[in-house]
Fold each of these.
Amino acid sequence: MKHLSVQHLLGIKYLNLQDIDLLFETANHFKEVINRPIKKVPSLRDITIANLFFENSTRTKLSFELAEKRLSADVINFSASQSSVKKGETLIDTVNNILSMKVDIVVMRHPNVGAGVFLSKHIDAKIINAGDGAHEHPTQALLDSYSIKENLGSVKGKKVVIVGDILHSRVALSNIYALQLQGAKVMVCGPTTLIPKHITSLGVLVETNLKKALQWCDVANVLRVQHERMDINYFPSIREYTQLFGINRELLDSLGKEIVIMHPGPINRGVEITSDVADSKQSIILNQVENGVAIRMAVIYLLAQQIKPNS
Ligand code: NCD
């Protein structure tokens, strides 16, 4: 039985290539399971998982919850907007109270960078980072790479451009780590104000001309402008952003080749991508969502193996 090299999933930064291979192999198995008439396996019948969401989420929260239920785990859900966090309780107190109910795994989304790492040092449960501020979103990057591999046969040697608000995106950073670990070439493209100054130190290419970036790549992963993380104006208007960095059919047709279009969601239709492109054959956005469940089942299953060494 192969094992992950890590005790928690805090970021792609902490994984090695064998971990990614093992996660993908396990996800292949679960993808087959969730396409069966009976989509559930009894693997985690005695495991309890708490989903703690201190920030809004639709897809990630539902995807984790479904993954946990498909594995037959007991699941409790917590969202900060309806909790005592609003009454001034600290993170450790909130989580310790939940853990005294005998929780084995905590899936956490939190607005603060490093919240997962902090928690892993203070509590006795497996931690899965479901997004910490503008830092990492490891399961999203895993499902993105898995979807590229499924579509193009491999990640190694592929050219991937991440388009849009790189500065505020945890999806971007986790994708950069995951893609490079697997031998892909990565470029970022967006307004200079939304590209971190030192990003080239990560070994990525930077391009501010969208057409040139798309001509270079095999895959474009398109990001939403994260208005909720912006305290100033990073570009003059949404209309100008769309004109310079929006992906539309005409632009794609002018490339003379077909690239794969991805988006982590939620999409702002008509801003970073037009509806016809998002819904076209070259878009794998819904495959990403489907693969998200299989990937999250794999992450949870492999971490749970470390709790139950004899299973
Ligand atoms: C992303 C996130 O929350 O970081 N969404 C997601 O998890 N699918 C990206 C975003 O919010 O734009």
Amino acid sequence: MRVPLIAGNWKMYKTVAEAVDLVDGLLAGLGNPSDREIVVCPPFTALHALSPLLRGTEIHLGAQDVYPEVQGAFTGAISPVMLRDLGCQYVIVGHSERRQIFGEGDALINRKLHSAMTHGLRPILCVGETKPERDSGRAESVVVGQLRGCLEGVAASAAADLVVAYEPVWAIGTGDTATPADAQSMHAAIRQVLAEILGSEAASSIRLQYGGSVKPDNVDELMAQPDIDGALVGGASLKADSFLRIVQFR
Ligand code: PGA
């Protein structure tokens, strides 16, 4: 019932020419993956060039961030309407790098999420604990707090468009992945909280991605977990062969 969703977060990598090369490589090797959904989230600067290449293909376009306002004096910001205009269907909100490096908190992320949904973008909401939070036994309470803050005011009817990515901060870009069992246990806890916030029917339909050093050699085990419905992939999404192998998880 939950179609697995594999998304590549390219972060601040790839010029336009490099982005086009990567998409060409992905399209050439993809085949016809009817039982899974694929998204790439290039930097803003490559969206316009990639949009026509991806139209009508099996790969959807996503953005890495969005500002909640539609237009105005917000220097450097990109609105959801602009992203829709470029053919984006998804947008990442609340990535830990936005939280840690750019100081974003749950209240702003909540506004981004509402604005994305209002304007027809499906948000991929990222949550996850830091290493000290995990080591001190607070991982679950941190993640629950982020979910409650970021989902404030979201209606159960909007749940079909929502994706939640559990990304333990200590696993991002480190090569250190959560064990499939630890990831599954957090995903089950997340689904439980989603049921409390949005109702159990909505919670059972929301796709939960795992993110944090997902690679070709660990994706199969992660995806075999009952509450892991996809992956949000950073480093391994930057090369066609590794991302294709992840997309082709078994
Ligand atoms: P990583 O990044 O796969 O390079 O760990 C994941 C992410 O930040 O979404």
